[in-house]
């Protein structure tokens, strides 16, 4: 009788939400590993992939849609690609989408046109909002939808989830390696220092593509004017002396700022920039919208990140409503968002890798648990 009772309890446990989510997370990560290493699948279930379009204001969004075979309803996930040239067709997403679909999730990966060009723009936030609405209207989705962003798409996902039209319907946000305050992040890129928890500047080497593209990107937020033309001429290597003499105090501040390596001086110059530029950046900064967030949130970052310093996620974790923060971790064993580094197990780092693999498992588990 005791054996039968134990067996009955074990069978019952298999149908509980935590156990089922744990099994799905395990199978998902195994499938991703097998797909990455051997281009094969560990899950026998089939999936359907299609390219879909849907409206967003006066334009059309193109997205990849992955879903399980069959007519059942499934939870949904919006996957937002980072600043990668291939956008929705990035190789990592072409692995993640099918694995998630085989695990029983409907996955939508919209093309974020500006981010694919290494630019941040409010249009991509609108794209994510429209993508959420589109997926929630599909008959094969059970309306439990989470949003996951990595690197520069993470803050865009958070801003989209704070939009009043969807904010109370987003089940969870996965925030992986994003920034919290765009002003602090950009000043870190410019000065090559981030400010730590003790308010001290720490040397940091940002990825070269950031410093190369930043001047032109910031200039685009300045209204069309002769000054905008002169700034573009300066940053493109033209006749800098003549163009610089034509700049307003705001333009001079931007020119000096981009050459500064002093964090204190950078903060001072930041307050002198064009109002339109600062306003445009504010519209791309989660720190001004955090009070409008209703969704659960899981936050991870890596200490060795040359795109966005890890302290940005620390600030987000401190600012977010503690009841909504269901997971938070700073990792040390992989670089930026390259979780495949956890597969590089050596005797010298074995226990650290095992520990952080478990922590990454818990991040995925908490995200999937919230969309069931």
Summary, kept brief:
The chain has helices at 2-14, 17-38, 91-102, 113-116, 122-136, 153-161, 182-191, 208-219, 226-235, 240-245, 249-257, 263-270, 275-282, 311-319, 350-371; strands at residues 47-56, 59-68, 74-80, 106-110, 141-150, 170-176, 193-195, 201-203, 296-302, 325-331. The protein has 372 residues and is an alpha/beta fold.
What attributes does this structure have?
single chain; 372 residues; alpha/beta; 15 helices
Topology:
Blueprint: H1 2-14, H2 17-38, E1 47-56, E2 59-68, E3 74-80, H3 91-102, E4 106-110, H4 113-116, H5 122-136, E5 141-150, H6 153-161, E6 170-176, H7 182-191, E7 193-195, E8 201-203, H8 208-219, H9 226-235, H10 240-245, H11 249-257, H12 263-270, H13 275-282, E9 296-302, H14 311-319, E10 325-331, H15 350-371
